[in-house]
What we know:
Shape: globular
InterPro entries: Homeodomain-like_sf (IPR009057), HTH_TetR (IPR001647), TetR_C_34 (IPR041483)
Helix content: over 70%
Structural class: mainly alpha
Radius of gyration: 19 Å
Low-confidence stretches: none
Largest sheet: none
Order of helices and strands: HHHHHHHHHH
Protein name: TetR family transcriptional regulator
Strand content: under 5%
Keywords: DNA-binding
Number of helices: 10
Number of strands: 0
Amino acid sequence: MRQRARSPEDKERRAEDLLAAAEAVARDLGGIRHVTLLAVTERAGLHRTGVRRYYSSKEELLLELAERGWGQWRDKVAAEVGDRTGLDAPAIAAVLSGTLAALPVFCDLLTHVTLYLEGDVDIERARRYKTHAFAAHDAIAAVLVRAGLMGQEQVTSLLAAAVLLAAGLWQASHPTATLAALYEQEPRWYHDVRDFRPRLDALLAATAAGLAAPPR
């Protein structure tokens, strides 16, 4: 069992350990819905009451993980685009779908943030999440506008679609145990949403093409 963090550096490191543990639990157990503070603290090597020294609740911990996810997405988009220019709508859509698919826990969190996470923390914590999420969003948009042939309004609309599609498709393609059993009995109900990445690719490409098409 680890000792209590003494210095600010130790505390920051323990907080990061908890975030990494929460992400690992979500990956191993099949989603954010299965994350508990007990599982997180056990994975991080802390006593189950220790998390309260770093995060006031499970909701705050998960919101912090979502906030970090926005930064990771921003960085992946910037790395994927690099110095390229002249990206057309299909290429921009591919950048967004590929980078989102590389962050499955973030895609899962996008649903939970909207449903309850940002509403179940105090207003200052919600403000901090929104501030950092919108800053990452705007940075992603700036990279795509600079490198691509789509305008600011088109890119902003495509980003909104990407977030909504990633959140919804991730949930649909990772059903609960009850729904998984039901889909075994009725495979046709699962067929259209089973494959997350191909569906995200196709729907984002279609959305980007529609946004980039000249008005009639």
